[in-house]
Amino acid sequence: MSEPMELDGRCMCGAVTVTALASDPILRACHCEMCRQHNSFAFVNIRTDQDSIVLNGPVKVFKSSDWAQRAFCGTCGSTLWYGSQHDGSRNLAAGLFANAGKVPLAQEYFVDVCMIGNGFAGGHEKLTRQQTFALFAPDEGDAE
Fold first, then answer.
1. Mean pLDDT of 107-131
2. Total domain count, the chain
3. Which of 14, 39, 63, 84 sits in a 20 to 30 Å window from 33, CA-based?
4. pLDDT, tens digit, for every residue of 22-59?
5. What is the pTM of this model?
6. Is 141 part of a structural domain of the chain?
7. DSSP per residue over 27-90, as a string?
8. Residue pair 106/124 in contact by the 8 Å Cβ criterion
9. For residue 131, what is the domain's CATH number?
10. What band does 144 get if pLDDT is binned at 50, 70 and 90?
11. Residue 130 belongs to what domain range?
């Protein structure tokens, strides 16, 4: 087994810093309406080891639905994460980390409602709205 990828990043202004480890780093992109509203496009995150995440600085958290939250820098507004209310998981924005570009895109969510047709190019897993809800929130219906 290889060593976890070390991630050291920051928001655009540098007020929020974040470190994390990624034992199995992959990128995931979400095209749901809320992610598009929050980011003006798809939200791309990097899978990290949840217990390794350390954030410092003016983090602001917004409860965006009954089961989700989104966080941003209180100074510059940079997106920090999308998280689940039920387990406290945080899916860190890939753009925080300079070395995230070395990580492959592995999953894409809500491809049937994305702004660019059928999502990003490549042979990665592409899930529709219905498939995404079945995977993450089977009891939530249409709430994002």
1. 82
2. 1
3. 14
4. 999 999 998 888 888 888 888 999 999 999 999 999 99
5. 0.83
6. no
7. EEEE--HHHHHHHSS-EEEE---GGG-EEES-EEEEE-SSSEEEEEETTT--EEEEEETTT--E
8. yes
9. 2.170.150.70
10. very low
11. 5-136
